[in-house]
Amino acid sequence: MTATYRQVKADLLEQITKGAWPPGGQMPGEAALAAQYNCARATVNRAMRELVADGIIERKRKAGTRVRMAPLRQARFAIPLVRQEIEEQGATYRYGLLHAAQITAPDWLCKGMKLNAGQEVLHLTCLHSADNTPYQFEERWINLAVAPMAAQADFSQTGPNEWLVAALPFSSADISFQAVEADDQLARHLACPVAAALFQVERTTWWEGAAITFVRLTHRPGHRMTTQY
Amino acid sequence: MTATYRQVKADLLEQITKGAWPPGGQMPGEAALAAQYNCARATVNRAMRELVADGIIERKRKAGTRVRMAPLRQARFAIPLVRQEIEEQGATYRYGLLHAAQITAPDWLCKGMKLNAGQEVLHLTCLHSADNTPYQFEERWINLAVAPMAAQADFSQTGPNEWLVAALPFSSADISFQAVEADDQLARHLACPVAAALFQVERTTWWEGAAITFVRLTHRPGHRMTTQY
DNA sequence: CAGTGGTCTAGACCACTGA
DNA sequence: CAGTGGTCTAGACCACTGT
User: CB A197 to CB B174 under 8 A?
Assistant: First the structure.
């Protein structure tokens, strides 16, 4: 009876769960397992590579494979596009551009985006609504040195995020999540009391080493971000 | 000149980034690419499987491979153990158990953990400090039906999380993140003003379909969770 | 039904690294 | 330096699914 890599992976996971090899303990080598499962070494290899990706085991050449001491707890979460997020809840999405202006990047922004002092950026503020109630307030700065075409783009109908995703699809980013108290501006736009606790996401997006955009997304009170692992 | 799967992956990514195949557009099949890169089909296959995992492309049998319309934006983040998180910042970790009691699960908890009404749970509150200032307030409920040994465990020296990780290492979980206003209890324990905005994590941990524990971790003001993608 | 990706194999060579 | 995982190959069969 030969085994598929899925079966091998599942069985190994079960053995680990049952404690066949204690955390930190060494597991048999690929060759041994291949013999045991009556399959090719490549099959065992794939199963074990996935277990590494899942944070269950660690492998080192010569040293062999070990069960992780503390299982690496990690989760993936989707970075949502506001429009999708709202529409998936069955609500009507509405977008409004509140303000747009070309300005000289302030110091704090230059630091975060690694801009040269005096760099021109496009500053936007927008509001995303669900069923006509404020859902997310967006404040964004776009680096005009990297994305000069943003100066001509029309953000009155479509959010800058959707424009950017279309214009520069594949990029990397730093993200941070935090809780903030609503200041006057946030309270006004999100129709909530001043000092309400708000969930805020900040994201700096990079394109070939240069920052394209920094965005601060502030959600209405009670917003939750959820995921599983 | 043959190519490794890394080279193939990198080159495909570059082609995609350059727009060689527009979003939604079809890419060449594995056989064609293998010929083009002068490598085995398995090599191309591995490269493309990783691009799928990265959310860049979509593949279907017979239909072929396409560049994703909207690149799947997703990020991984590590679920930290408070102790590690604090020690990595170079601070001294201190743990304190504030309260422990066996109680009957309240209704709202039964819903979240899918418990039978009247189920006994262990309720704990703890404080994690960094350099002797409050860092994270933990409120936890443990399902004694699934983890009866928790009733005998000593949580006065070690946090329940570390105990659980050791006792039941591999499990799945639902997580949610949100901003909350400090109530009296939180303000007292975290030494912050009432109504301060706090970053809160809630996590339900499952073991073979049954909830082991529900935990609510509330961080001191200003806490940020960060990651990259 | 036919084309595409999914997976397996048996064997090979290589790179890293612990003993 | 020797053992372990990392990767590649050439070929094969299979499963799914669009046409």
Answer: no
* Euclidean distance between the first and the last CA atom of chain B, given in angstroms as a whole number: 32
> What torsion do the CA atoms of A4, A78, A75, B86 make, to the nearest 10 degrees?
160
Q: Scan for tokens 């591999």, then name that residue.
A: B170
CB B17 within 8 A of CB A167: no
Residues in B closer than 8 angstroms to A56, CB to CB, are: 170
Is the CB atom of residue B40 positioned under 7 angstroms from any atom of strand D? Answer: yes
Distance B216 CA to D2 C1' (A): 51
Cα(B193)–Cα(A181) distance, rounded to whole angstroms? 12
Burial group, residue B44, by CB count within 10 angstroms (0-12, 13-18, 19+): buried
B229 DSSP 8-state letter: -
Q: Please provide residue B4's backbone torsions phi and psi, each rounded to the nearest 5 degrees.
A: -90, 170
**Strand pairing report for A64-67 and A74-78:** unpaired
Query: A39: Cβ under 7 Å from strand C?
Result: yes
Residues in chain A: 229
Q: How far is the alpha carbon of A111 from chain B, nearest alpha carbon, in Å?
A: 17
Q: Can you give the pLDDT of all 229 residues of chain A as single tens digits?
A: 678 999 999 999 999 888 889 888 899 999 999 999 999 999 999 999 999 998 899 999 999 999 988 777 788 888 888 998 999 899 999 999 999 999 999 999 999 999 998 899 999 999 999 999 999 999 999 999 999 999 889 999 999 988 888 777 777 889 999 999 999 999 999 999 999 999 999 999 998 889 999 999 999 999 999 998 8
Q: Say if the Cβ atoms of A195 and B195 lie within 8 Å.
A: yes
Nucleotide with C1' nearest the A64 CA: D4
Would you put residue A215 in left (φ > 0), alpha (ψ -120 to 50) or beta? Answer: beta
Mutual orientation of helices A5-18 and A30-37 as an angle, nearest 10°? 110
Provide, in whole angstroms, the distance separating residue A48's CA from nucleotide D15's C1'.
24
pTM value is 0.88
